[in-house]
Amino acid sequence: MHVRSVFTAEEMRAANREIDRLAARARPGDDESWWVTTDDGAQALCRLVYATLRSPVLAALESDPRVRRLGTLLDPALRAAPDRMEGSAVLLKVPGKTTGLSNIPWHQDCGMGGHAIMCPAVTVGIQLTGSDPSSGNLQVVPGSHGQAVHYRWEQRLDGVPVVSIDTAPGDVTVHVQDLMHASPEPTDAGGRRTMYVTHYPPRLFDYVGPGQAFNDLVRNRVIAAPAASAE
């Protein structure tokens, strides 16, 4: 769902100033951000996670009645999780080809498991900037939620409906997390900023504690060096 003009231009300017502040503090390995490698080998910030835990301005957006209303349309018991599942995250779309999790291919957010406790989760995407293909906007496959979809299905099936969502600053998108969706490479300058506030079923909080989620494990993974040969 695409809801237009939920927030004012001034509200989005204030949020972007706060994101600039958090981005200036972010460092690779800080457990508060995701980074990618650009074509020239530099590291670039692509996501701030658990953002509302260190920003009263963004926390106010997370708990705003407009966000709450949209996030609980399916079930009034759903609630945001600021301290787990990476909390409310801010996507910072890096232009060009990158290595890492910026240009995310088709996926379901429960694709690595956990559907029984995570879904139906509802993600509210606050459009801090406008978005279109030039900035790598959100793409979705209507009707793909509530089921498992084979890996790389888009290479094998014809006639699959794909919707590319163009937005203006202050708009909001709403989707369930097991909807097939993607965040493709920008066709031009990039720069899209979106704050995602996800509302989860109460049962998730019984199984997933603070700082515990698949993405927390991926972000903090340590690849062990090969064992020395006995010879």
Automatic annotation (TrEMBL):
<dbReference type="GO" id="GO:0005506">
    <property type="term" value="F:iron ion binding"/>
</dbReference>
<dbReference type="GO" id="GO:0016706">
    <property type="term" value="F:2-oxoglutarate-dependent dioxygenase activity"/>
</dbReference>
<protein>
    <submittedName>
        <fullName>Phytanoyl-CoA dioxygenase family protein</fullName>
    </submittedName>
</protein>
<dbReference type="Pfam" id="PF05721">
    <property type="entry name" value="PhyH"/>
</dbReference>
<keyword id="KW-0223">Dioxygenase</keyword>
<dbReference type="InterPro" id="IPR008775">
    <property type="entry name" value="Phytyl_CoA_dOase-like"/>
</dbReference>
<keyword id="KW-0560">Oxidoreductase</keyword>
